[in-house]
Amino acid sequence: MPIPASDIDPFSAAFFEDPFPAHEALREAGPVVRLSRYGVLACARHAEVKAILDDWRTFSSARGVGLQDFAKEKPSRPPSLVLETDPPLHDRTRKVQARVLSPAAIARLRETFAAVAGAMVGALAERGGFDAVADLAEAYPLTVFPDAMGMPRENRGHLLPFGNMVFNSFGPRNAFLEQAVADAREAVAWVFEQSKRENLAPEGFGAGIHAAADTGDLTAEETPQVVRSVLTAGVDTTVSGIGAAIYCLARFPEQFARLRAEPGLARNAFEEAVRHETPVQTFFRTTTRATEIGGESVEEGEKVLMFLGAANRDPRRWERPDEYDIGRRAAGHVGFGSGIHACVGMALARLEGECVLAALARRAARIEITGEPRRRYNNTLRGLASLPVRLVAT
Ligand code: 8QM
Question: pTM to 2 decimals?
Answer without folding.
Answer: 0.98
